Amino acid sequence: MSTLSRDEVAHVAMLARIQLSDDELDHLAGQLDQIVEFVAGVGEIAADDIPPMSHPLPLSNVTRPDEVRPSLTAEQALSGAPASELQRFEVPRILDQD
């Protein structure tokens, strides 16, 4: 017997903006109940000696260190720009807001 009521399934369908027939609501109530049971079962399987993790394999950050290095001056960067103002690229306005 489903612990999720037909009304609860209808409410979730309404929130998801899915139109379901009466037969579909009855059918999905049982399926969603099974899904909830399976998810609850995962919590029972988890052992206390296993730390929570977001990924099954260890991940490492592959970005380079943030170090100050020589780069273009503002004048050099803006030298090829069609328009600039206050050491910034000037682009056409796309919104009417100030």
From TrEMBL:
Which reaction is this enzyme known to catalyze?
L-glutamyl-tRNA(Gln) + L-glutamine + ATP + H2O = L-glutaminyl-tRNA(Gln) + L-glutamate + ADP + phosphate + H(+); L-aspartyl-tRNA(Asn) + L-glutamine + ATP + H2O = L-asparaginyl-tRNA(Asn) + L-glutamate + ADP + phosphate + 2 H(+)
Write down the superkingdom of origin. Bacteria
Under SUPFAM superfamilies, the record lists: Glu-tRNAGln amidotransferase C subunit (SSF141000)
Mind listing the UniProt keywords for this protein, alphabetically?
ATP-binding, Ligase, Nucleotide-binding, Protein biosynthesis, Transferase
The EC number(s) this enzyme carries: 6.3.5.-
Provide the GO biological process annotations: glutaminyl-tRNAGln biosynthesis via transamidation; regulation of translational fidelity; translation
Q: What does the record give under GO molecular function?
A: asparaginyl-tRNA synthase (glutamine-hydrolyzing) activity; ATP binding; glutaminyl-tRNA synthase (glutamine-hydrolyzing) activity; transferase activity
EC class of the enzyme, as a word: ligase
Question: What biological function has been recorded for the protein in this entry?
Answer: Allows the formation of correctly charged Asn-tRNA(Asn) or Gln-tRNA(Gln) through the transamidation of misacylated Asp-tRNA(Asn) or Glu-tRNA(Gln) in organisms which lack either or both of asparaginyl-tRNA or glutaminyl-tRNA synthetases. The reaction takes place in the presence of glutamine and ATP through an activated phospho-Asp-tRNA(Asn) or phospho-Glu-tRNA(Gln).
Q: Which family does it belong to?
A: Belongs to the GatC family.
The annotated subunit structure for this chain is:
Heterotrimer of A, B and C subunits.
Cross-referenced PANTHER family, in alphabetical order?
Answer: GLUTAMYL-TRNA(GLN) AMIDOTRANSFERASE SUBUNIT C, MITOCHONDRIAL
Q: What is this protein called?
A: Aspartyl/glutamyl-tRNA(Asn/Gln) amidotransferase subunit C
What lineage is on file?
A: Bacteria, Bacillati, Actinomycetota, Actinomycetes, Micrococcales
